[in-house]
Each structure stands twice: as C-alpha cells, then as structure tokens.
Amino acid sequence: MKFSFLQKLGATLLIVVWVVWGSITVGNLLIPTEEPEVPAALKLVKTSPAPSAPAPSAPAPSAPATGTGGPSGDGTVLALLASADAGDGKKIFRKCKACHTADKGGAHKVGPNLWDVVGRAKAGAAGYRFSRVLAGLGGAWTFADLDAFLARPKTFAPGTKMTFRGVKKAADRAAVLLYLRSLSDSPKPLP
C-alpha cells in the first residue's frame, strides 16, 4: 500500500502537534506554577487593555511586596526574613532549578546562574543575555527588589523573558530570599 504525499504530510503534522502538546503538558507537570492572588478590590475594577508602549527604561519600584503578594497583606516579606528558614527556601527553589543553577561558577541555563545574586547588579551575570527590560532597570538586586520580582516577575519587569508566574506566599518568598542570600562567599546583611 502506497501513501500519497498529502497523507504523509497530514501524518507528519499530526505527530508534530502531538509532540508539542506532550512537551507542554510534561513541562507544566514538572514546573508547577501558582496563580497570583488578585486582591478583591481589583477584581471589581474593569480595565481596558493599555496601548502598546516601549519597554520602560526607569527602574520598577523597589517597595517590598507585602502579605501574600498583594497590597492588602498584613506583613512585609522583609519582616518575615527574621523567622524564615533557608532550608525551606532551598526546597522551594527546586522549581527554579529547571531554569537556573545556583552553584558558584555554575553555567547559565535558560535563566542566569543565581550564585551571589543578592547585591549583584541587575542583569549583571557575565555571559548571560538578559532581556532589554532587565538590562534597563539598573541598580543592584536588593531584598525588596528580589521579593517584588519573585512575587510577580511580569509585573516587576514587564517584558521579562522569565515565564514563571511567581511565588504566591510571602513566607515562601522570605525563605527563598534567605536561601539566595546564602549562595555567596560573603552573604549580604539582612535589612
């Protein structure tokens, strides 16, 4: 039995669709994401899409995210650092390992190596090509900036290449911040 060109083309397209769908499904299972919590007050506000604009060149606000990722939280992540556990942060960081390494001198993956990231210049990992948005932020990664970025990367740096939705719980972000702080020969002092 001979197959026509169109039958072969159709089978090839079907296989490609299955492979893409399967890759996305497996990726979503390996890297769980959390939906950021939207405060009740914002759920009632109707918004229209903003017009397209060039990427911002000014740095994002460095105010710490509060509570569970929204402005209505009742405690800052920075205050939680004193009671957080870097060991818990290392466990939470496992989901980050799909894209980042954390070893001293480690190679970059899809994302940059995060060794000594606290206090490092934003977009300052040598040999990694950052998005124009992160490269344009300037300044160093403070605990407050890292918290805001981990809470909602796309809100902190609209247009970032990072596809991770964020760490919803403030206590989890505090633990990850302590773990990231420990990834250094000279850990930065806590705020």
What would you say this structure looks like, in words?
This protein is an all-alpha fold. It folds into two domains: 1-30; 61-182, Cytochrome Bc1 Complex, Chain D, domain 2, CATH 1.10.760.10. The chain contains eight helices and no strands. It has helices at 5-30, 40-43, 77-80, 86-92, 132-135, 143-151, 153-156, 170-182. Mean pLDDT is 79; it is low at 41-75.
Please render the helix and strand layout as text.
Layout: H1 5-30, H2 40-43, H3 77-80, H4 86-92, H5 132-135, H6 143-151, H7 153-156, H8 170-182
Helix pairs in contact: 4-8, 6-8
**What is the terminal-to-terminal distance?**
74 Å
CATH level 1 name of the largest domain: Mainly Alpha
Kindly state the percentage of residues in helix: 25-40%
Estimated structural class:
mainly alpha
The parts where pLDDT drops under 50 for at least 5 residues are 41-75
Number of structural units classed as domains: 2
Shape: elongated
Helix and strand element order: HHHHHHHH
Task: Tell me the CATH topology of the largest domain.
Answer: Cytochrome Bc1 Complex, Chain D, domain 2
Share of β-strand residues:
under 5%
Mean pLDDT: 79
The CATH superfamily of the largest domain appears as Cytochrome c-like domain
Extended strand count: 0
| CATH architecture call of the largest domain | Orthogonal Bundle
What's the number of helices? 8
CA gyration radius, whole angstroms: 20 Å
Sheet with the most strands, sense and barrel status: none
